Amino acid sequence: MDTEAQPTERDRSSHPVGPEDTSGAPGPEGRSRSSLAGHLAGRFPGGRTTAAPLLVLLLLLALGTFVARPFQIPSGSMEPLLRAGDRVLVLKLAYRFGAGPQRGDVVVFDGTGYFGDADYIKRVAGVGGDHVVCCDMEGRIRVNGRAVDESGFLFPGESASTVPFDLVVPEGRLFVLGDHRRASSDSRDRLGSPGGGMIPVSRVIGRADWIVQPFGRATRLHRPDAYARVPAREPTAQPDAANPGEGAHG
Fold first, then answer.
1. In order of start, what are the domains of the chain with their CATH numbers?
2. How far apart are CA 206 and CA 202, in angstroms?
3. What is the per-residue pLDDT across 124-164, written as a single tens digit (0 to 9) for each?
4. Among 172, 169, 140, which residue's Cα sits nearest to residue 154?
5. Residues linked to residue 119 through DSSP beta bridges, in sequence order
6. pTM value?
7. Residues classed as catalytic
């Protein structure tokens, strides 16, 4: 049973305060920052003492809703990169302007109806149209005919997978794996279920960009070079939207 499910309260929308002129000079509406603060202060008990923390709270809510949010790693399925208890910063804007998840990205997604009623964190091994096979004669995953060297992030001593598979990722979906394969319940375990273990891109909350806690391990997370030479598409591979798990074994 996947131990990494992390029930979370979904982000609630908020109404962020609009831009203000920090110079104190009247803005387009003829109001200065001080007049706005005074206006808000007059509406709350305690005046400015209450209004200032409220503005900060609204700003933090806006950032958490639209820009980035922290995510606590619930299990060891992404070791050695991420350990249980680590906190990562998830950039929500990473895929909001036309760019989609890429092979090698570590993403947080809503697994409701596909993995479980929780948010999960995994590495993208295949995007829409990719032909993903495991394993070749050397025990490696092949994507669009190209072997992927996962030694830079795979848990030491583990193979690419003990579960064989041969599949084409449907358009708009992702094939995701944990780095600690023996401790990860991921797309491999759901090949015969509805959706074939593939996560809709629309369910991706964002890309994990930084380890922020513990402070001694704080670092930027980079996309590994392992997928750099994988071709965009294998000419003979065609996605089968009607049966996304077709060709899978195990």
1. 11-66 (no CATH), 68-227 (2.10.109.10)
2. 10
3. 999 999 999 999 999 999 999 999 999 999 999 999 999 99
4. 140
5. 6, 110
6. 0.70
7. 77, 122
